[in-house]
Structures are given as C-alpha cells and as structure tokens.
Amino acid sequence: MSLAPKLESFLKEQLPKNCKTTIYSDPLNKENLEENTEILGVFTDSKINSDIFSALHNLKLIVVLATGFDNVELEPTKQKDIPVCNVPKYGNDTVSEYTIGLIISLLRKIPEAIDSVRSGEFTYRGLRGTELYKKTVGVIGTGDIGERVIKKLSNFGVDFLAFDPYKKEKLEEKYDLKYCDKQKVVENSDIITLHCPLMEKTKYTIDEKELSQMKETAFLINTARGALIRSEALLKALQDGEIAGAALDVMEEENILSDPKTLYQKNFNQEDIEKTLYSELIIDHPNTIVTPHNAF
User: What is the third-level CATH fold of 92-290?
Assistant: First the structure.
C-alpha cells in the first residue's frame, strides 16, 4: 500500500492479523512492489499503469484511498477483470470548505494583503478586491463535493448556474439553481469552480475555447484535478487578461512540481516538461493563488 499521512496506524489496526501487509511511504513503482500482491491499496500519488500490472500476476483488487481514481489505467483492469474501488464521499466537506476559502481569498486579495502588511505597507489601497454577494457562480460537476459547495455558498447570496450530465432536480428546487450547457455556464458566470472527476471525456474541460468565452472579470477555481484545465491555455488567458484570476489546488504534472529532481532521474517527454514550465509560470503569476493539493 501507498498511504496518505496518518492512515498507516489506522489500517494496521483494522486489517486481519493473518494478512501479510506491506506499507510504503513512497509512491508505488515496479521496483518496490511485491510480486505476490493480491490486493493493492494506493493513494493518488501512485500511478498504476501497464508496468505495474505486468509485474503483479496475482492481483485481484485495487483500492484507491481517495475519491478520484485517474491514477489507475482502467483498460488493463477491464482486460484482467480486476475491480477498482474508491472512496466516493471522501473529503466532501474539507474540499468544499477549501474551495470557498480559495474563492474569497482570490476575490478579496487576501494573500496580497497579508504580504503587503508583512512588508511594512499597512494600507488597503489596491487590495479591497470584489465581494462575493450577488455574483453568479458556475459549478461544473454537481456530485457530492459540487453539491456541498452549492449548499455552503447559498448563504452568501449568490446565483448559480451548473453543468453536469446527471442533473439533480433537488438542487434546482432548493437553491434556485439553473442547469444549462457548459458554454452558457462559462459565458455567464463570474466565478467558475470545477468539481468533476478526471477521465478522457473531462480532460481539458477548460481549454483555450472556454477561457476565451469567459468574462474578463471572471475567476476560475479548481480543487478537483489538474488536467481539467489545459495549463498552456490558462497561462495565455492570464497573461492576455482574458480572465481576472485563478485559484488552483491542483496542477498538471504535480509529481514533477513536488519533486523537481525527478526530471534528472526519469525519462520525461517534452510535453510533460512543457506542462511543468507552464505550471511554474502560473504559480508565479500575480493574479493566481496556487496551493499544493491539500484541499482534502
């Protein structure tokens, strides 16, 4: 198993004593796996790809200890009839609370205000930002986390637009929320927040086209998965003033961002390196807030 912090002792207590359990502090890879593994428990930092599958001939089950399971290549699991389990309600409140924190911090320029005071400038000039009240919030993905965001934001006096292939009528009735197509959400929202899983059909949900359709005063929030937004397109939109700003807890190529020395240890392709460079420039942009995937 590869585990998130604080899970190791809990799992040791819960698992049967007659199970041989190996727990890793580092992400799993072909070299550190035991070839007789039957049940594989992984966190999102472990990429389960064809190399892993080829090394584990006895594998019977994969358990992803998170909501998102985009770190697992699903085609080999289908071919080998290996079930993949996740934790669908993991982090609903923590992620939704964090999302709202990022929204308010971005709109009210809270990080800039803190930096200004610490640098000796005790003035609000240029730092007041804009209020959340009466803004239109576009929610892309109204699953458990998206729904919690809507519930919590409803107390701020905002209007809602939403896009999701699976509509929830109760949200429309309770929060005066309007479902519409993605283009209308993008064009008419003051704040767009992403809460959908990462899969082939959702990759780059926000790309150059969507960014060009956003209001110049709009803000983009992502606490879901980095590849829901194309980094290159977001950087260009920020540099050209097509949007007002972005708050991100997730990025493309996080494994390189978290450990840059891996660039010298592994064979990354040119595209991966370019995505990392775009991400670094987004981090340094004055109109962004970026945190290290800790919303959960």
Answer: Rossmann fold (3.40.50)
pLDDT of 66 higher than 70 = yes
**In the chain, which residues fall in CATH 3.40.50.720?**
8-85, 92-290
Q: Catalytic residue at 75?
A: no
pLDDT one-digit tens code per residue, 209-257: 999 999 999 999 999 999 999 999 999 999 999 999 999 999 998 888 8
- Quick check: pTM over 0.85? yes
Say which of 148, 195, 225, 230 is annotated catalytic: 225
Hey, what are 43's tokens?
């966190």
| CATH no. of 8-85 | 3.40.50.720
Q: Which of these is catalytic: 148, 195, 230, 293? A: 293
Catalytic site residue 285?
no
254 is catalytic: yes
Q: CB 113: neighbour CB atoms within 10 A?
A: 19
Four-residue CA torsion sign, 189, 220, 208, 177: negative
**What percent of the chain is predicted at pLDDT more than 70?**
96
Q: What is the pLDDT of residue 5?
A: 56
